[in-house]
Amino acid sequence: MEPYLEMKGVQKSFAGVKVLKGVDFSLLSGEVHALVGQNGAGKSTLMKVLGGIYPKDGGRIRVRGKERAIVSPRVAASLGIGIIHQELNLVPQLTVAENLFLGREHIIDGWPVIRWRRMREEASSLLERIGVNINPARRVEELSVGQQQLVEIAKVLSMKAEILVLDEPTAALTHRETKTLFETIRSLKSQGTGIVYISHRMEEIFRISDRITVLRDGEIVSTRKTVETDMDELVRMMVGRKIKECFPQKRPRLFGEERIRVENLSRRGMVEGIHFSIRAGEILGLFGLMGAGRTETADLLFGVRRKDSGRIWIDHEPVRIRQPRDAIQAGLTYVTENRKGNGLLLSMTVKENLSLPHLTSLSFTGVIHRHREEALARNLVRRLSIRTNGTKQQVGFLSGGNQQKVVIGKWLARRPKVCILDEPTRGVDISAKKEIYQLMNRLTGEGMAILLISSDLPELLSMSDRVLVLHEGRPADFFSKEEATRENVMTAATGGGRKVANSH
Amino acid sequence: GLVGCSAKSDLEGGKPQEKKVKIGLSISTLNNPFFVTLKEGAEKAAQEAGAELIIADAQDDTAKQANDVEDLIQKQVDILLINPTDSQAVASIIESANQAEIPVITVDREAEGGNVLSHIASDNVEGGKMAGEYILEQIENEGTIVELEGIPGTSAAHDRGKGFHEAIDREKGVQVVASQPANFDRAKGLSVMENILQSQKEITAIFAHNDEMALGAVQAIQAANQDILVVGFDATDDAVKAVKEGSLAATIAQRPADIGKMGVEVAVKAANGEKVESFYPVELEMVTKP
Amino acid sequence: MQTPINPRDIRIHWLKKVGPLAGLGGMILVLSVISPDFLNTSNVFNVLRQISINALLAFGITFVILTGGIDLSVGSILALSGALTAGMLAGGMDPWLAILVSLTAGAWMGAANGVLISKGRVAPFIATLATMTIFRGLTLVYTEGRPISYDNQAFSMLGKGYFLEIPVPVIWMGFAFAALYFLLKHTSFGRHVYAVGGNEEAARLSGVRTDRVKIGVYTISGLLASFSGIILTARLNSAQPTAGASYELDAIAAVVLGGTSLAGGKGWLIGTLIGSMIIGVLDNGLNLLNVPSFYQQVVKGSVILVAVLLDRFQKN
Amino acid sequence: MQTPINPRDIRIHWLKKVGPLAGLGGMILVLSVISPDFLNTSNVFNVLRQISINALLAFGITFVILTGGIDLSVGSILALSGALTAGMLAGGMDPWLAILVSLTAGAWMGAANGVLISKGRVAPFIATLATMTIFRGLTLVYTEGRPISYDNQAFSMLGKGYFLEIPVPVIWMGFAFAALYFLLKHTSFGRHVYAVGGNEEAARLSGVRTDRVKIGVYTISGLLASFSGIILTARLNSAQPTAGASYELDAIAAVVLGGTSLAGGKGWLIGTLIGSMIIGVLDNGLNLLNVPSFYQQVVKGSVILVAVLLDRFQKN
Ligand SMILES: Nc1ncnc2c1ncn2[C@@H]1O[C@H](COP(=O)(O)OP(=O)(O)OP(=O)(O)O)[C@@H](O)[C@H]1O
Ligand SMILES: Nc1ncnc2c1ncn2[C@@H]1O[C@H](COP(=O)(O)OP(=O)(O)OP(=O)(O)O)[C@@H](O)[C@H]1O
Ligand SMILES: O[C@@H]1[C@H](O)[C@H](O)CO[C@H]1O
Ligand SMILES: [Mg+2]
Ligand SMILES: [Mg+2]
Question: Membrane spanning segments where (chains C, D) (predicted)?
């Protein structure tokens, strides 16, 4: 069978650094072809070349047998190539419907006048098709990251692409939406659509793909049929060495004094009556479906948004948190889920990002001590294995996973008491994930308390010592490590659990 | 001493009014001491005559002047004093006052259209000419001259330049080596003159379209230790002082306070039904060192 | 899984729209109490006519600002178009032809801005600052620094006339508003304007020709600037080389007072109309109240600040 | 896993910095060929002295623009500070005290901008447009629309004097540059300025007091505007109510010509100095070459455009 898509010897460099070193990749009709590799391997870059965003430096691309020059996203779309990029690409100020049809609005024949009703109706049915119930008249900025991701999926589906690229589509999704997405993928497959699937979640890869291509440092390591390989082999190919067991050995559960206590945290219309406490060395998992209010809880704790009510104690001392600075001074840190939006200074260097929260301690009478700053940055780059051209590299040019490491890294130079991690491994590759897990264990070992928000259920269940489940902004249930099974947690998250008022 | 003559107002001591006259004054700009003085002359006269004076500042914008005059018409003034930002454009503005049957008197600048009851002004073209002739006389019809121009496109810049060139262009011995805009602004006058001094080594005289620029030029000349004859325009307090000290050779005085004062006096008279002349000239005078 | 629309959201949305209107209403209330002349029909039309120039400029700039840009050159385009029109009329050209030529020239000037900004990747502020200087210079060159008068009563009616007691410029403003409102709200071009301002990269990836959209908005802005130059020329029976100087600032102020965000992507044309009215009512009121001119600037700046602050305050 | 710094990166970095410098070099070359007076020592100092006012304003605005803001009020602050200084000197106050009072006033005016923008959440463009109007109005009120002269030779030397053949304003400019360069490059405040401009929310979440940083940059801008007002007053032996009108545009042009991005987060102070020189050399050259007044604006706008375009072109 002739492949839908054939890429041969594709090359791409940024500022002289070879990111793609002659990559061959093909896609058949009706297949799901997984593309895997570590952060910075070049997966997204390859797809951006395909999507007409980056011009290639060398190589050929054939679509349905014909060699094509894909010079712009428009050309890619006209060739039936639809891409969901790793980073969200929606216009926050426009409505869901407007975003779904952006650039391809339904217009009255011969007139540039929009047919609103038709657009709204079609938007509804598109969203329904992937099992989401979002009002198409809502503005995208009011949606949570997960909901936005679903809108992106609906958008690319509506393009009726024959070649569909999904670059980490599930990173912001919970189990339930992932399941629906996979159903959609299967049905598209049966209609003959070819799908490139990029993910760092290994179980997904094995569940959905027909073939797997491993990319390492811009080169193809191997392309295998999914049934002919296994997790261990895949990981070995990606990393270049063997990695055992993903979740690290849990240290003995010996918790210290209570580090943080939260009572009656509320903000009208968002969350209500959140109670919990975390002891030294303990990891509290916070679970919920999309929009359940997890991020909101974290934002209120850290003073990003104003709470209507709620009291917080750190090490038994009541603290007043009205802005992030207060939280930091009280010993809290917060790794946010939206790294581009509020985690990073994309135009600044790795060093400047890493040192930003610590400038006071790095300077004397306001003057920054350059050597100490450099030493701090180098140390963190090494500790977290951040792949960068140096501490002076601009963060915006790092791969997604490496950006995430910078976000986490910038908090680690100081010794916080409580750490809030919102989706800390989103978009992070398997070896980096492992490093992050080990890091979490090391930090709890040093007496830190962690509030872990994650949509990755296996991760949440194995890393947490206790799990608090939110449902529609209220605490739905609270589970000990033993009770916290996939079934229990999901039942509570969907509103079927025993209601708890207090989860201390 | 004073060269030229001055017109003495013969309108003083009009009989007391039965009703309070409401006068609208639309002034071209108050960002300039000249018009501030004109305005103050008008205010003083209004107070003396017991008239109400409503002032609108067009900030040198013709369209704003059109709006201002309409607003004054809405205020139902008895009579309008207009100091046009532009002589031609003001015609249609005056027409709208005519329609509202409010008499119009122009001050300082003439209107080229519309029904104007009376005009009170001195002549900018004439002033430019006086400056040119004075310079010729002082340099004995020989030398190089620099002209500092006002804001390009304004009537004052245009008229003064015109009069100045009328006076000097026919003289073969003199040459205008540089004509540069310094926007009626002292700081700009200084920097433009500094720059000109870098390339023109022998300058005999400078004519600036107003005193602000002239005083800026004087700073540049002093810093360069040169001796150049500078003539300005307006006779502002600073300029008169500079003339006394000798750093400025002369300045053409327009007597703006008198223009304002006479404007109000004529307006009061007209509002009370008395007959007024169609033109009241306010003489220019040249201020030089005694 | 649908989250219901939050009642608070709706309230905020509504308040945002009502904010500028409330400011305008407040001003009108205060003025009509302290100045009996203010609410006359004739003064209402007077104010509307006065704002028409600013509103036309501000409409165009609204499009530009929605894409995240800015246009400082409108005052100069106004002047140059006005001068061209007056020049052609003075030369005896047919008024309609003269208008057509001027509008075309204005559109081209705007398009030049758009090309510099989109293709040349020059920051809008600096590109239009440069062209503002250039177009002003060209106006001076063309007029030789002198006003150009013409005599054509038919043409003058475009600026001075009345239609059913309504001043003609007000009618133009109404037409322009209706057309532009439709363009912004109901055409794909309009949606793309918001998209480019909201997230240019996303728009581009969705196949929106962002460069064209940008050239489009600056062209609209140039066209409207030219149109207001024509109306002003008609109203004054002549064109001034210095016309329109610093009008861009009042126009931008109107846009922002109306609630459009300078960051792009958010805003609405009705707001701009209201913003324009706020400024117009303010200027008119200051004159009617006979506020001394040096204080007028202080008051005007302060009122604008208060209006914007109140608006912010309401939204929180 | 660290890859070494790429030589090309360095080159790009260097080019970015060298772009504006190349533009300046080109202009100097052209001018020194066509005008023999251009490269005299005396003219070089002349140009440097002339740019000092613009450069001081532009230094302050650089801080503001780096945070993603803009400051249109500098020209008005310059005028008000100058008027205050002249007024106090005319009243016989000790020059040092007068300077101190004026600088304090300027800093407070800047701080007021900062508070409006950070605490009041008013868009910088509109906030400083409003205060520009207010401060100008206050200047007119204070001066009653007339220049204020004073007589104090010692004070005048601040603007007119020479120190080892170098004009004093040039020395001030040098000092200010050195101090601000250090502040921006080597202190945590400087870093926070970049951070706020790069991603305000991220900066806030990292514990940066973004409001204070903003108030800080506008205060610096106000302080420098006031300082340049003092120098200008010293040079002219008097203060004009209209001083500094539209200086903000030249200052912003200098910042952008120097390669600082109006979006914030990216830029450098040396660039601003170079940008200021480009504008100064241009003005000087137009005068030296005796370009007719109407054409000056056309040439100036075009040269600025070409400089920015060349810069873009080089970077690709
Ligand atoms: N615009 C750019 N400029 C410079 N370097 C870039 C740019 N885009 C990507 N890179 C570099 O190219 C390499 C590959 O990045 P890419 O985003 O393709 O990785 P990825 O495989 O998608 O990783 P991840 O799993 O983290 O998303 C990285 O080292 C990154 O730093
Ligand atoms: N800026 C906003 N404006 C209005 N509503 C918002 C905003 N941000 C979030 N919401 C809404 O608040 C609710 C809680 O959102 P939140 O992001 O806290 O959810 P979450 O549980 O963290 O989910 P996710 O998995 O998407 O991160 C959602 O219904 C979301 O749509
Ligand atoms: O007569 C005035 C003054 O001389 C001023 O300096 C400029 O404008 C003119 O009209
Ligand atoms: Mg990627
Ligand atoms: Mg979340």
Answer: 21-39, 51-84, 96-116, 122-142, 162-184, 215-237, 249-282
